[in-house]
Amino acid sequence: ESSFVDHRGKTITFAKPPERVVMIVRSAPIIYRAIDAKADNIAGMNKDSLVRYFTKGIYAEMLPEMAKINASAAQDGFVPNVEAILAQKPDAVIQWTHDEKIIEPLERVGLTVVGWQCCTEQDRLDYLTLTGYMTGRNDRAQAILKAQADTLKTLDGKVAKLDVAALPTVLHIDKVADQIQVIANGSQNLALSGVSNPAADNTGEWWRTIDFEQLLVWNPDIIIIPAYADDLNPKDFFDNPVLASLKAVKEKRVYKQPVFARTPDAPEIFLTSEWLAAIAHGADFAPDFKAQIAGIYELLYGAKLTDDQVKAILESDSNAAANKYAELFG
Amino acid sequence: MPNSSAEAPAGKVRTGWLGRKLASVSILPALITLLVAVVLYSVTIGRYDLSVRDVTYILIDNVHPLVAPYWDPVHEVVVEQVRLPRIMAAVIIGFGLSVSGAALQGLFRNPLVDPGIIGVTSGAGFGGTLAILIGWQGYLLLAMAFFFGIGSVFLVKLLSTVRGRTSMLTLVLAGVVISAFFSAAISIAKLLADPFQKLPAITYWLMGSIASSNYLDVLLVAAAVVPSAIAIYLLRFQINIMSLGEEKARALGTRVVLVQWIILVASALISAGVVATSGIIGWVGLVIPHVARALVGADHQRLLPVSGVLGAIYLLMVDNLARTVTTAEIPLGIITALIGVPVFAVILRRLHAKGGWSSD
Amino acid sequence: MPNSSAEAPAGKVRTGWLGRKLASVSILPALITLLVAVVLYSVTIGRYDLSVRDVTYILIDNVHPLVAPYWDPVHEVVVEQVRLPRIMAAVIIGFGLSVSGAALQGLFRNPLVDPGIIGVTSGAGFGGTLAILIGWQGYLLLAMAFFFGIGSVFLVKLLSTVRGRTSMLTLVLAGVVISAFFSAAISIAKLLADPFQKLPAITYWLMGSIASSNYLDVLLVAAAVVPSAIAIYLLRFQINIMSLGEEKARALGTRVVLVQWIILVASALISAGVVATSGIIGWVGLVIPHVARALVGADHQRLLPVSGVLGAIYLLMVDNLARTVTTAEIPLGIITALIGVPVFAVILRRLHAKGGWSSD
Amino acid sequence: MIEASDLTVERGGRIILRDYSLRLERGRTLAVLGANGVGKTTLINTLIGLIKPRSGRLSIGGQVGFVPQLFEVPFSYSALDIALMGRARHLGLFGAPGKRDYEIVRHYFHMLGIEDFEPQTFNSLSGGQRQLVMIAQALASECELLVLDEPCAALDYKNQDKVLSLLEHLRDSHAMTIVFSTHMPQHAVEIASDVLLMTSGSRYVCGPTADALNAENLTALYDLPIARADFSGLAKHTYAPVFRHEGVVIDG
Amino acid sequence: MIEASDLTVERGGRIILRDYSLRLERGRTLAVLGANGVGKTTLINTLIGLIKPRSGRLSIGGQVGFVPQLFEVPFSYSALDIALMGRARHLGLFGAPGKRDYEIVRHYFHMLGIEDFEPQTFNSLSGGQRQLVMIAQALASECELLVLDEPCAALDYKNQDKVLSLLEHLRDSHAMTIVFSTHMPQHAVEIASDVLLMTSGSRYVCGPTADALNAENLTALYDLPIARADFSGLAKHTYAPVFRHEGVVIDG
Ligand SMILES: Nc1ncnc2c1ncn2[C@@H]1O[C@H](COP(=O)(O)OP(=O)(O)OP(=O)(O)O)[C@@H](O)[C@H]1O
Ligand SMILES: Nc1ncnc2c1ncn2[C@@H]1O[C@H](COP(=O)(O)OP(=O)(O)OP(=O)(O)O)[C@@H](O)[C@H]1O
Ligand SMILES: [Mg+2]
Ligand SMILES: [Mg+2]
């Protein structure tokens, strides 16, 4: 028997680990797969999660079984199709907590709901713990958490020695075509990597669209293209004549984020902080990064990555033109 | 001249009066029968497979308890907790929006008027958005939406009243202006919303859905819609008169301002109630009255009920599609238009000759 | 009776005719002067600090090259590549939408009509959304938006033409229906869009922005707006006549169908051009004509140019706010309404007495 | 029934009527005559309360039925629908016409001989037919005071006759008070007990028909020779204009 | 100028006119008389091309100016604006009225004595004033054929006189062809060279005024005694209705 408290403060008890779990939370399937080390108990997920994560890319290569899971739980991230979920006869449903209206219909028909809340760093760690309780694989959950904590602690030790006054500025830009869109207040803690975001304020506004004049005013040292920005590459910056007067473009310090940043709540996301620190401060901040990546993916998914796969994860092709990328990560 | 009327040929009068009553009666019961049929049909469909027999027994059980219910309790839950409240919500909302749309088109004498024109819809939308943004849920959200919706109609009335007189044109323009204002405010709120949780929540809520309706929601929306629809229906004859224009209405002895107010407030209640419980459901209140007018003419005595029932049938069918056609819930607002458009394009073409408006 | 006219008192005729000309002339030049002033002011403001002197030299340099430009080349880029095209776009778009709104309100004799009513706006919006969804950008997107915009006005006309006759009411309803259809289609596209990349792109594009306009964009939107606005202006007198109703217009010898078509197509071109280059910019085309009508009356000969210039000034000022008020670009659609609403609420109240519509 | 003293009425900022006083007892019929634009419609609208006078006192006893000069409807109501609206005053805020109301309206349709129009769309009727429906509407309101603005303007002689007879009948048998405006003095001759000759916004003659209505006053009123004409072989007379009497010069 | 043979016209699915034939030479004036709803407006709308006849042949020579029976405008145009619209035919698709057009319109305003209305909002004019403006509009169109539907219905005698004189003047000095409908036979007596008496949708009398217009025909037309009345002391006559002649019984 396992009993735990979910993010709503509700105590949930399972006599044995549930065998049919429907997940409405977008990143729950990958977390569940990582901790449970198998996909057998995942009975359903969102259409959206399936299409986005499991039909192409590294997950599709490593975890082909995920693509076969029923995807009728919800279309849009959180609004459940109650009858479709009932038809799966689930033992438990993982759902967001942000609105009682999206949980109440599920409980009304007698389903067991585990609530996850969003979006702080602690919430993200909790997903792993909660999944550990559900699957009865708390050991794996703690091992993964420890791997994260160790990496970040080492990184923190190095970042602490940097001169706080001279930290480089980094702007995450995911669009430069019809509009210039930057991440103003994202979820990634940039301080962990020893950089700062000139666009940050505490409005809570995640994305912000700016005009070119504003970009000139901020003039960041480094520009990062988020992993999800499929159509945007460093080359687009280097080839754009209007952007040529930007410092980061002049110095060719425009980088595409690696694939491990693709799924915001995935267990490997912490690698992003290390990668960014290396970009900003040098290879010392992520020593032997390729081996580390292979190790983490093996721990999480039991996958043995080929060298090409690691390169693909690091977006080495896209970043070939960027300053010192090859030197940094081979 | 009260007694002289007896001298009019009685037979003719009787058939005539009854004849008219019958004409209105023959379409309305047909529609009501259709509505009942669609409701019953709706209970039997859904992603969860249930036989028609099971559903019938489950329904009968409520009226006349069957000794040994042999069905799975989950079935009863599906029928009674998932499908029934949702069906009720669709019927009530479709009815309310169409009645209010028909009344407002008559009041403003403008075919482009819909329940959103008086600012309530986007006002209520903003109220709800604000609530989501602050993190309020459930009945707080509902209250906010409702409060802002009703507030905005008062704002519109205030804006358009110059020295005690309200012109219908200014009123309608004030409505447009206030709507635009709240829509912009909604957009601002969306820009500020957390894109992972709150933005999708706002977007989805605004798009309109009755997917998660429970009996309390149904009760709430009914509490807003039913009395308002009754008030509007009671004014059916006054709306006829108001549709001739304010001057004429005044000359005929109508208490113009009072009638305007009742209709505005009743429409505001309907819209605010709908938005509060189910988000913005557009289009129904604009188009259904035109279809109804094509069926029974411009007389609001027949138009209002026919409009209402037609709206109920329409929204119910649309919601049935929304919940069965794909695995995912498609927001109502989308299907309303997507399915409705081709259908109504044809209907409007066909029936336009007798479309009830004189201006074509 | 051509020669009899000479017998009319000549002096009176002259002052009268000139008098009318002057009345229209005195407001229009005032507005044009204001527009020029606002344009010049607009070049000097922005997030990037530039002194008025620098800007002046940079501008003069174009007309009369200064031998040794002492300014930073970045400054020149900011003024000439960032600010100027944007200002031009705002002026052209504001002008076009307002002229088309005024013409359509006259044609349909309905104060609630705006350039979006004939289906172009959401048609073009859908075209653009589709392009973004497919992954097309730049001129492909533009072409898609344009194509769908123009296509939808033809669809509307097709839908509303029964046996060769088009009633204005059916036309306007068909417009509403087609708009609803494409809006729903846009929503569907949004549901299908990747929420990290394409959804925000679609949302932002639809909300309207001229932030990234370059000279090619300006050229494109001008190519759509300028000839159309000229065509509409040339028809100014015919619009007066059409505004009396179709029958009367026909009796006066107007080629009703031709005039309708020219105005519809010209408005469609304007809207499609605007949406294609800058997304959906609502509200301007609806409200500005009312303000203009309050200023100069209903006669379209004066109304159209005044409406246009007023719209240009308004949109330019709004865009100035959009790009300077915060570090973020606020979508035009939002500020248009947010700032405009209180202002126009007051103006409409004040000037409504001579609002140009007879129906209040 | 009607008592107005020193009425001053303005429209669009212009004073149209100044210091009008008039008095009409229950059961009498007043014909209002005057040139175009002199203010007949304005006066009538003031009497029924559509326009508030700027100054002066006005008291009206009883409910008022009204037939306007111009009329359009935005919806295609049937003629019966339109006439039924005349019953509004008797139905209260939440009422709708019932069997009795239909009977009353049909009764007046019958009296006017327009039963056929009942189901027809009001807007598809001819100008004169619409006017008859509007008169039926006003009659159906069964008010003590009936006010009609040029009720016969679009009517042919036969229908004028019907309407005039009906008005007289209503006055006689129900002691209704009637005010109507007209451009044909003959209408006044036929049924009016009183006439109001509006010469200008501030000058008028008001009195019993027999006294006030004569060729002289009418000629002054219309600024055109109006002569008495006697029907050949009948003991009746009319007043008719003598058009183009002095070979009016066209000064164009 | 006008040649119509065997015209059959329907509206809303009902046949209103059957087998109407008529012919009017250039420079002549036709008065159309008939009971309410007989089809005068329908005939006139057919002549000017607003209604397509169901069968029959119709040929009209030259451009047509038209004054409708009912008139409303949705925008507050000035009277001048409205009258200027009469110039549409002369301005082409992309034209706008220039100095000459203003002069012509002002000329007719002057002839009708309505110069004062120029800047006034059309909708704030009285019924009769609007009708004068509409007549000015039709005159300003300077067409060969002028068609007027009850042009004098809302006018006082003075203005009727003005309009009639003006029409006669136009016919005489510009050889204009004129068709107008009216309910007052006197108008026909005054200026019409021809009359069309529409007894029903399929029966009519058409001919020169002197022949066709007599008490007998009119009595048949209106189904009411119409008698010739001679002006006291003048060598003129008129036709006027003998209202309530036989003590018409109100059968209500
Ligand atoms: N809303 C208004 N604003 C300004 N002036 C007005 C308004 N309504 C009427 N008038 C003016 O008031 C005067 C009287 O108009 P009214 O309609 O009372 O005339 P009338 O005697 O009924 O004329 P008719 O015989 O033509 O019907 C006219 O000169 C008219 O122009
Ligand atoms: N759109 C329509 N649909 C059906 N019937 C119509 C329509 N328009 C007119 N009618 C009918 O045609 C007949 C002739 O109408 P019309 O307007 O020509 O009469 P009129 O001779 O001008 O009468 P009036 O003297 O009253 O102006 C009327 O009976 C009328 O009801
Ligand atoms: Mg009048
Ligand atoms: Mg007629």
From TrEMBL, chains B, C:
Transmembrane annotation, as ranges: 22-43, 87-108, 115-134, 140-159, 171-193, 213-235, 256-274, 303-322, 328-348
Pfam families: FecCD (PF01032)
Gene3D superfamilies named in the record: ABC transporter involved in vitamin B12 uptake, BtuC
Bilayer topology annotation: Multi-pass membrane protein
Keyword vocabulary terms for this entry: Cell membrane, Membrane, Transmembrane, Transmembrane helix, Transport
Protein name: Iron ABC transporter permease
Intracellular or extracellular location(s): Cell membrane
Family: Belongs to the binding-protein-dependent transport system permease family. FecCD subfamily.
TrEMBL record, chains D, E:
Gene Ontology molecular-function annotations: ATP binding
PROSITE patterns: ABC_TRANSPORTER_1 (PS00211), ABC_TRANSPORTER_2 (PS50893)
SMART domains xref list: AAA
Keyword tags: ATP-binding, Ion transport, Nucleotide-binding, Transport, Zinc, Zinc transport
InterPro entries xref list: AAA+_ATPase (IPR003593), ABC_transporter-like_ATP-bd (IPR003439), ABC_transporter-like_CS (IPR017871), Metal_Ion_Import_ABC (IPR050153), P-loop_NTPase (IPR027417)
Residue span(s) of domain ABC transporter: 2-225
UniProt-listed Gene3D superfamilies: P-loop containing nucleotide triphosphate hydrolases
Any Pfam family: ABC_tran
Highest taxon, organism lineage: Bacteria
Membership in a protein family: Belongs to the ABC transporter superfamily.
Protein name per its UniProtKB record: ABC transporter ATP-binding protein
Phylogenetic classification of the source organism: Bacteria, Pseudomonadati, Pseudomonadota, Alphaproteobacteria, Hyphomicrobiales
